Amino acid sequence: MKVNSTSSNPLLNGVAGNTRTDSSHSAAPAPAGGSRSDVDLSPAARQLAALNSSEGDIQTARVQQIRDALASGELKIDAGRIADGLLASVRDLLK
Questions:
Q1: How confident is the model at residue 80 (pLDDT cuts 50, 70, 90)?
Q2: Alpha-carbon distance 12 to 19, whole Å?
Q3: Which pTM value belongs to this model?
Q4: Rounded distance, CA 29 to CA 47, Å?
């Protein structure tokens, strides 16, 4: 079977062997005199980047309070309550 590099589909014309001759899809030319490139992020992309950063993920003061409460016996773990919460979240995921 022979595969032609031309097609009746105008979106595929000029595509052969992973090369594209359509200049509207070409990479932008490199800036003259350097390799610096600026990228403008959308507000949604900035928010995702902020969520991806690990800064502020752990509240160390709160973790220490929980450790101290566990060590002193003030904090009791209710396994039934934890199990109920897990089952409820699984039910929500299955909906």
A1: very high
A2: 11
A3: 0.34
A4: 29
Q: How many CA atoms lie within 13 A of 19 on its CB side?
A: 4
Please classify residue 22 by burial: count the beta carbons closer than 10 Å to its beta carbon, then call 0-12 exposed, 13-18 middle and 19+ buried: exposed
What is the structure's pLDDT at 91?
96
pLDDT for the residue numbered 22: 46
Cα(78)–Cα(62) distance, rounded to whole angstroms? 19
- For tokens 């990479």, the residue is 27
Confidence of residue 94 (pLDDT cuts 50, 70, 90): very high
DSSP 8-state secondary structure symbol assigned to residue 34: S
DSSP string, the chain: ----S--SSTTTTTEETTEE--GGGSPPPPPTTS-----PPPHHHHHHHHHHS-TTSS-HHHHHHHHHHHHHT-PPP-HHHHHHHHHHHHHHHH-
